[in-house]
Structure formats: C-alpha cells, structure tokens
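yo, DMT family transporter is done. seq:
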Amino acid sequence: MKLWIYPLMVVFAASCYGTLSTMVKLAIRDGYTASEAIASQYIMGFLLALVIYLLTQRKLPRLHGGFKIILLAGIFTATTGIVYGQALIYLPASLAVVMLFQFTWVGTLIDCILRKRLPKRPEVISLIILFIGTILAAGVLDVDLSGIDWRGWVYGFAAAVSFSFNMNVNTKQVEGMNTTTRLLFVSFIAAIMIAIFQTPEIVWNGKLFMEPLFFYGLALGLLGIIVPIYFFVIAVPKVGGAMSSILSAMELPVAVVVSVIVLSEALSGLQIVGIVVILLGMFVPTLASISKSKKQQATLGK
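structure:
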C-alpha cells in the first residue's frame, strides 16, 4: 500500500487542478473576468496559506536556504496560470487543454536532460497512449484549426513548459523547511506575480471580499493553490519529475467530467474513450515502477 501513496497524492493534486476551469467559467457566468477569477485564486490561496501557517506554526517563517528553489516554485506556479489564461483568449477551450497537456512529454524531456538519461520504455509507451487519449478526450477532432491566432499556440505551449518546470522544481527539497512554511513562501511569491500581471485592484476596491467572488476565490485558492502545492511538495520528490508529469494527466479527465456535471456540457463517445485511454496511459509506468520496487524488496529480503 505504501508504494501507492505518493503516486495517488500526485493524482489527487492534479485532479484538483482539473476542477479549476469549470469554476473559472462559473465566475465568468456571474459577470467576472477570467483575470479577476485567476487573481482571486492566487490572492485567496496565499491568505489561506497564511491562516494555515499561523494555526500550525509557533514561530516566524524563515528561509533556511533554498531561496532559489522557493523563488522558482512561486514564479512557475504563477506563470502557468497567467499564460494559460492568455491561451484561452486565442484558443478554443478544448485546444488550449491539449496544448497545456504537452507538459506530459515536456516534463519527461526536462527530467531526462537534467538526469542525463534516456526515457524509459514504460515512459515512452505511456506518453504515446496519453497523447492519443488527450486528443480524443478534449474533442479536438471536431475543432476547426483554420484562422487560429499564432499567439494561442505560443501561450498554450508556454503554459505546458511552465507547468513542467514547476513540477521539476517540486522535486527539489529545501533542507530544514517544512511543507507548511514552503507553501506559505511559494503562495506569497505567486500572489505577488499575479498582482503585477493580473487585476490586484479587486483587493483594495473590496470586490474580492464580496459574494460570490469571495467564495470562488476560496474554492480556487484551496483546490488550485493549497492542496496541489502541499501534495506536490510531499509526493513529487518521492515519485520523480517524469512520473509526476505523466500522473498529472489525470487533470484532463477530471476537467471533462466536472464540466459535464456542473456545466451540463456534452460528452461524446470519443471523449469517453479518450478518458479511458488516458487512465490506461497513466498506470503503465506506475505499475512498472511498483513492480520493479517489489522485485527489489524481494531481492533484498533474501
């Protein structure tokens, strides 16, 4: 059972990300802009992290080294949201999701470069399966690609690269810093980035603290900042950057299912097949890794 805990934490964190697009769409329906929704997510995320820190820690937060890691984690957390929001301006939602999901192979590529290794066979098989599943699940086969602004492709791929680097940074542990303190610093840096590039005026004009944006911000901050960062910080160093990128593909099936349930969006047979294919692609390297670990334990036990 212990072998499954950390991969499941990555899957759960990615699943939380899958709910965000639906909540942003709900906020837009209520008259807010996507920028306001994203700003509320990061600002409320930091405030929630601050409350958690004050309730659980009895000392002032300090950086015990590792400032570069924390800074990069905060920057990449914010830039992923910023550039993905820009991609949604120029791309259909389904195509924007496909571009974001290039992080599955980009993350694996980054991990291979940094570790100076070739991709493992289960990783390659998984990435091929995930690519096919992503195309089907996102409904891209029904999208007209003519006339799409080139900036959409750039922003979409930039979101994938940013998410991949964020995943890789999360493989780095900071000695002497617990998860709660790291969550506080990362969310603070991300909130500053968002305040610079998004709409910070929702704070001082009081809009953030009025219904329903306040509740959207709470939900987005919890599921888009607190839970993912907390779980990724704990699990990604154990699972590895490449494996975590693959397991994070769970975000797409969750995004599709939640949009169907909450927004009553249509779900085609091909999308259902795509979701099943993605789940299959996720578990190929996971099962291979767990099987290898069991064999190693059995060998050591002899």
